[in-house]
Amino acid sequence: MSFYREFARYVAPSVLAFALSGVYAITDGFFVGNALGDEALAAINVAYPLTAFLQSVGTGVGLGGAISYAIRRGGGDEEGSRRYFGVSVVLLLLSSALLTGLYLWKALPLLGLFGAEGAILDLGWEYIRCIALGALFQILATGLVPFLRNMGGTVAAMASMITGFVTNVVLDYLFVWVLPWGMTGAAAATVIGQAMTFLVCLGALVRRRARPAFPRGPEALRMMGRVLLVGLSPFGLTFSPNITLILVNKSAAVFGGAFAVMVYAPISYLSSVILLLLQGVSDGCQPLLSLSYGRGEKEKARRVRELAHLCALVLGGMCMVLLYLLRGQTALLFGASPAVAEEAARVLPIFLSGYLFLALSRVTTAYLYATNQNRRAYALIYGEPLFLAVLLLILPAALGGVLGTWWAVPLSQMATALLSLWFLRRERRPVPAAE
C-alpha cells in the first residue's frame, strides 16, 4: 500500500467521524436553544466543560493505552500490547465510578464557579445531573474508540461514532421538541447516544477477537502509571478547549455580564466543531505515527506529520472562509435572539483569526505524544490555557472590557503555535526511546 493511500485510510474516516462529532457537540445547543431560548443555550455552554471532562478522561485513558499498545505491537510484543489493553479497560471503569460520584456531589457549585447564576445555573444543573448518571457510557465510548482505531478498525470506529451521532440527533428531537423534557431530555439523548457508540465499539472488538490481558501486582501498577503518563497529553489536548471555555465564560461574565456569556455561547459551539475536525486529523494519523515509531521508522513518522500539518492547515483555512461568509447567520442557527446574533457576527472574526494557529499546534502535539515526546506535548497542551489566563489578566483592562477577553483567545493560540514551531526546530536532538 502506498504512503498516501495508507495515510488516507487512517485519516479520512477519522476526520469524517469527528466532523459528525462536531455536529454531535452542537446538537444539544441547537435543540435547546431553539426550544428554550438564550438562557438555556448559555446554560448548556457553561455546563459543557463538565460533559467534555468525562469524554476527555475517556480519550486520555483510551489513547494513553492505545499509543502504548501500538508501540509494542509495532515492536512485535503482542503480549505486552494485550496487557496495555487490559489495564486501560480497568482504568476506564474505575474513572467512571469515581467521576459519577464526584459530579453528583460537586457539579452544582462548579457551575456557579464557572459563571452560571440564576436561571442559567438552574438549567445547567438540570442538564449535568443527568449527564453524571450516564458517565460510564461516555467514558467507555470515548476510551474504546482509540483502541479500535489502533487495531486497524478505522471504519468500525467511524461507524460507532456515526451511530452515536444519529441516535443523539433523533432523541434530541424527540425528547426536547416532541415530549418535551427540556434540559433533562437533551442530556438523556447525549447519554444514550454515547451508550450506542460504546455498544457498536464493543461489538467490533468482539468480532476482532481483541482479548485483553490483565497483569497483576507491581506490573499492573507500573503499566497503569504508564497509561496515565502518556494519557495526560491526549486528555489535555481534548480538554484544553474547555479550559478556554471556562476562562472566557468567567471573563465575559465579569467584563460583559450575562449578555456577553450569551454572545460567546454560539461562537464556542462553532469553535468546538473546528477543533473536532482538527482532532480528526491528529487522532487519525496517531496510529501511523506510533506504529512507525515502534518500528524505528522515524523518517516515515516525519512524513506523516508533515502531511497531517498540510491537511489540518487546509481544513482550518476552509473553515475560516466559510464561517466568515456565514457569520451573520451562524448564531441564529442556535435560536439566538437578534441582539445576540448581531453581536456574535461582529465578534466571530476575532476567533476565526486563530484557526490556522490551532491547526499547526494540534497536529504537532499529536505527533509529540504519539512518538513518546511527552514533556514537549505537555508544554504545548497546558501552555495554551496558561497563555490565555495571563492574557485575560491583561487585555480586558488594556482594551477597555470584554473586547480584550475575545482577543485573548487567538493570541494565546498564536503563542502556542510559535512554541510548537520551536519544538519542531529542535527535533534534531535525540527522541526519547520507547520503554
TrEMBL record:
Keyword vocabulary terms for this entry: Cell membrane, Membrane, Transmembrane, Transmembrane helix, Transport
Cellular localization per UniProt: Cell membrane
TM region(s), chain numbering: 7-26, 46-71, 83-105, 125-148, 155-179, 185-206, 227-248, 254-278, 307-327, 347-370, 377-399, 405-424
GO CC terms, sorted: plasma membrane
Keyword set includes Transmembrane helix: yes
Keyword Ribosomal protein belongs to the record: no
Bilayer disposition of the protein: Multi-pass membrane protein
Protein name: Polysaccharide biosynthesis C-terminal domain-containing protein
Organism of origin: Candidatus Flavonifractor intestinipullorum
